[in-house]
Design brief:
Blueprint (H helix, E strand, L loop, with lengths): L5 H9 L5 H11 L2 H6 L2 H5 L6 H8 L1 H16 L3 E4 L18 E6 L8 E5 L6 H17 L4 E4 L5 H11 L3 E5 L13 H7 L4 E4 L9 H13 L3 E4 L7 H11 L3 E4 L10 H8 L4 E2 L3 H8 L21 H9 L6 E2 H8 L3 H13 L3 E4 L3 E4 L1
Parallel strand pairs: 3-4, 3-7, 4-5, 5-6, 7-8, 8-9
Antiparallel strand pairs: 1-2, 2-6, 10-12, 11-12
Helix pairs in contact: 1-6, 7-8, 10-11
């Protein structure tokens, strides 16, 4: 949503040399995004990792001019900017260390639904791949009509996923590798427009950004990070889908792959993901639901009586406190909250699992028993 700080939020993304981690560090040190641009040169130079050259970039008048131009564009185009501290921002994405500072949204959907899945695959989809994608989404729609389907609007499996979601009255989001002043590929413009009513177009790129090859790699991390699971329907031996799967694994998201015959060229990537334990074999929705722990019925269960734990270490107590709300948390989220490396957390979480205090869930999620 447009706010008094939106101009400065956009400007923050225009500073050359300021990545996501440094932007967060700047805000923590100075106070907020507006203060960064109103801080004196002398104060900025005292901040660790801030070089005189970077101070010049922050103080450059061109940064604010570009931000003002972009703000004018999004105002005219009915585009909503989501800063990473906003409640509307995809909260699953905030668990990822390289999440974008700012996202541009056009459409009408809730990114923070209970269930979100990303479906990706080859641009050279076979009839088998398209049929499976359509059937899978149709089955999911019957069980979970409020689920959000995410993909990338590309040829092949991506556009098939979007269109199948629309035909089954599901909300669907296309994550783009360019600004919202264009649609690429142009032949998918009609579908993109149809998505705006119940779905959205989402990008981290400002207007005038071309769909360059490197931008698609950056786009893939958003596709992976904003979902509970990534499903690869078809993929050759190389391609963006495999990159998305690797990123999803690094984010501790569940990755599923649809198997194919060993002779099928467009199944080489999926078969390799399964063979190397980088993805779970997906044959139908039952396998998806079981692995994700998605129940098809609302069974009322009595709350489990939790014993008093008197033998927790200091590290275990910190994790216990972080999970006290009762809501499951992703391991990256816990790591950020406790300022502890993920590798250190895993050992402590394992100890808590053995004590029947913590339960591990799909996608690197944990909750108290």
């Amino acid at each position: 949503m447009i706010s008094d700080k939106t101009l400065y939020q956009i400007a923050l993304t225009k500073i050359k040399g300021v990545g996501i981690s440094l932007a967060r560090a700047l805000m923590q040190t100075v106070g907020d995004e507006e203060a960064i641009f109103k801080e004196s040169r002398k104060s900025l130079e005292k901040i660790p990792r801030i070089s005189p050259q970077l101070v010049n970039e922050i103080r450059s008048s061109s940064v604010m001019l570009e931000a003002e131009e972009e703000l004018s564009f999004i105002n005219k185009s009915n585009i909503k900017p989501y800063f990473f501290t906003d409640s509307y921002y995809p909260q699953r994405l905030t668990q990822c260390i390289d999440a974008p500072i700012l996202l541009y949204d056009k459409g009408n959907t809730d990114y923070n639904r209970e269930k979100v899945i990303s479906i990706v695959g080859t641009r050279n989809a076979t009839s088998h791949g398209r049929d499976f994608c359509e059937s899978l989404i149709a089955d999911i729609a019957k069980s979970f009509p409020d689920i959000l389907i995410v993909s990338g609007l590309a040829y092949g499996i991506d556009i098939c996923a979007h269109r199948a979601a629309l035909s089954n009255n599901l909300s669907t989001v296309a994550v783009l590798a360019h600004g919202l002043d264009r649609i690429y590929p142009h032949v998918h413009r009609k579908t993109a427009v149809e998505m705006l009513e119940k779905g959205a177009l989402l990008t981290e790129f400002p207007s005038k950004t071309n769909p360059d090859k490197f931008n698609f790699v950056r786009r893939n991390r958003i596709v992976a990070g904003m979902a509970d699971a990534v499903i690869v329907v078809e993929s050759g031996s190389r391609g963006g889908s495999l990159i998305t799967a690797d990123i999803a694994n690094s984010y501790f998201r569940e990755v599923f792959a649809v198997p194919g015959r060993v002779t099928d060229r467009e199944s080489e990537g999926c078969n390799r993901l399964i063979a190397t334990n980088k993805a779970i074999l997906l044959s139908d929705t039952k396998a998806l639901y079981e692995q994700m722990g998605w129940s098809l019925t609302d069974k009322s269960t009595k709350p489990i009586q939790r014993e008093l734990f008197l033998d927790l270490t200091e590290d275990e107590e910190q994790i216990f406190s972080a999970l006290q709300s009762g809501e499951p948390k992703q391991v990256n989220e816990i790591a950020i909250e406790l300022d502890t490396p993920v590798t250190d957390l895993f050992f402590t979480l394992l100890e808590l699992e053995m004590k029947n205090i913590v339960k591990a869930l799909p996608g690197g999620m944990y909750k108290l028993m």
